[in-house]
Amino acid sequence: MTRKLQEAVRAGKRQAAPFRKGPPKPDPKLPGRKSGAAHGKHGHRPSPPPEQIAECREAPLPDACSHCRGRLIETSAADPYQTEIPARR
């Protein structure tokens, strides 16, 4: 009697999920995101038209790094834009 009880308790703790999943798909897709531009449209907006630009400021490169005091070399330039969103009242 004790052995049957122990077997019943052990059977209740077995995982049933692997047996209920069904057969595997013949050609499953690879997990993860596609590489490069193949994974869809990026969330970058285009730069605003010139008539929407109200103010331009220059941000010159400092002479040295603020942490290591090493010399900085400009390799490229970027055009960042900041948009003011009016407050709702």
UniProtKB/TrEMBL annotation:
Question: Could you tell me the superkingdom of the organism this chain comes from?
Answer: Bacteria
Q: Where is this region: Disordered?
A: 1-54
Q: What is the protein named?
A: Transposase
Q: Which organism is the protein's source?
A: Gemmata algarum
